[in-house]
Design a protein that fits this description.
- A 4-stranded parallel beta sheet has the order 2-1-3-4, sandwiched between helices.
- Helix 2 packs across helix 5.
- The chain has a domain of 92 residues: Phosphotransferase system, mannose-type IIA component (Rossmann fold).
- By secondary structure, the protein is an alpha/beta fold.
- It is elongated.
- Keywords: Membrane, Transmembrane, Transmembrane helix.
């Protein structure tokens, strides 16, 4: 009977805890260009010659690109210009049309279209998120969870 109560308590705690996504942390810049080996240097030189401060990332697989696109769903400040892996980006935009203002795809990559794309992506407005407001909710949730676990453990120890 004693182990049944403990098992039920553990089950309730496990079911009550929200799931944690082990997706990983996005370490890329908020404004970026997705390129490949064939056009990465060209895009970087066009950006530098026009004094556009943007990070150019060379990707080697569609899976990496899909991973970055998944990160952009939750990061409303993420702006991405695609000069490579256009099909992956277009497929993603079909599933998430609300992100079409933050994701620009260049299908015909040349100097002029790349410069126009760079200027367009830099002009996309970003949200200014006040990070101080985002700290209160996780802190409160953590305190509540800690109190519940502490009360449960305290009650268990007192009944012994």
């Amino acid at each position: 009977m004693k182990y049944l109560k403990i098992s039920i308590l553990l089950l309730i705690l496990l079911l009550g805890i929200s799931t944690v996504s082990s997706h990983g942390v996005d370490v890329t810049a908020d404004t970026m260009v997705v390129a490949n080996d064939s056009n990465g240097k060209m895009v970087k030189s066009i950006a530098e010659s026009n004094n556009i401060n943007i990070s150019v990332y060379k990707f080697t697989s569609e899976d990496e690109v899909t991973h970055i696109l998944e990160h952009s769903i939750n990061n409303t400040n993420k702006r991405i210009l695609f000069t490579a892996y256009q099909e992956t980006a277009n497929d993603f935009l079909k599933k998430h049309p609300d992100m079409s203002n933050r994701i620009i795809v260049i299908d015909n990559v040349n100097d002029n279209t790349t410069l126009e794309g760079l200027q367009n992506i830099m002009n996309v407005p970003v949200e200014n998120v006040n990070s101080e407001n985002n700290f209160g909710l996780p802190l409160t949730i953590g305190i509540i969870i800690g109190l519940l676990i502490g009360i449960g453990c305290g009650a268990y120890i007192m009944k012994r």
